[in-house]
Design a protein that fits this description.
Shape: elongated
Number of helices: 14
Order of helices and strands: EEHHEHHHHHHHHHHHH
Largest sheet: 3 strands, antiparallel
Length: 276
């Protein structure tokens, strides 16, 4: 939008600046004579704390009509796939509470940490699907490295890889599946488990049990066994109702569903006569 077309409100003025280093709908005027002694420290160090009491007496909503000092803020075109564009997209898709949390997250971090976490990655899921085993392993390695550095796109890409991998037919496929699961499940949050658990349960519904797949099935059960019981109980019970398993396999699943209760030390002491 051209400068002369901009609405003459304070929010569109180049002198308008947030009134806090936390998410806020209020701003201050950088040309305010009262705040002039502190402006450099605020701009250079984002240091509001020593002046917050004064700032709170001078802050205002950006929608108010601008004064005679109005200078239209410079408009910069931002490409959607650029780093900053991705940040805006991440911000825009959230609700008000999440936006405040995200903004506070940005403000609490060093610029290099934000760049590392949100910078775009080069990844094409179709390339991963079409790749051979060695290439898939290399892609997972690269994504895993970025994920360990905190990159969110890499974390999401790793789950996409896990979801895209077909049932293993060779031992090499099993190794790739295991690696994808370990990387995709590294971020052990309720949100990630809500994605991974149904995926693995569905795998157990259809996967044949043989010498090739045995290691992958063991890895699935190992992961499910570490999940909170309330998150895996219902899907595993449904699985046992809907698919007939060999006795040993059924026993392994039931061991996750109904783990042995660890005896309390004092109960054991009483039962064993140690109190006498």
């Amino acid at each position: 939008m051209a400068k002369e077309e901009m609405e003459r409100i304070c929010f569109n003025c180049g002198y308008y600046f947030p009134a806090s280093n936390e998410a806020t709908e209020y701003g201050i005027c950088l040309s305010d004579d009262v705040l002039e002694p502190f402006v450099d420290d605020i701009l250079e160090n984002f240091n509001f704390a020593p002046y917050q009491d004064i700032i709170d007496t001078r802050k205002f909503l950006g929608e108010r009509e601008a004064c005679e000092k109005f200078e239209p803020a410079e408009i910069i075109e931002i490409e959607d796939d650029s780093f900053v564009g991705k940040l805006f997209h991440e911000y825009a898709k959230r609700d008000e509470r999440e936006r405040k949390e995200l903004l506070n997250d940005f403000l609490s971090k060093e610029p290099e940490d934000i760049i590392r976490e949100y910078s775009p990655i080069k990844f094409d899921l179709e390339d991963f699907i079409q790749a051979d085993g060695e290439q898939r392993d290399s892609i997972l390695e690269q994504l895993g490295h970025r994920m360990y550095l905190g990159n969110r796109d890499a974390d999401r890409a790793l789950f996409s890889c896990l979801r895209a991998l077909p049932l293993p037919e060779r031992i090499e496929d099993v190794h790739i599946k295991i690696k994808a699961l370990e990387l995709a499940a590294h971020r052990d949050t309720p949100e990630r488990r809500a994605e991974v658990i149904p995926l693995l349960i569905e795998e157990l519904h259809v996967i044949p049990s043989n010498n090739t797949t045995r290691q992958w099935i063991r890895k699935i059960l190992e992961y499910l066994g570490k999940c909170p019981h309330e998150e895996i109980q219902e899907p595993l019970e449904t699985l046992l109702e809907e698919r007939k398993f060999a006795p040993k396999m059924r026993e392994n699943i039931e061991a996750i569903l109904y783990p042995p209760v660890k005896e309390d030390f004092y109960e054991w002491l009483w039962r064993s006569g140690g109190n006498r």
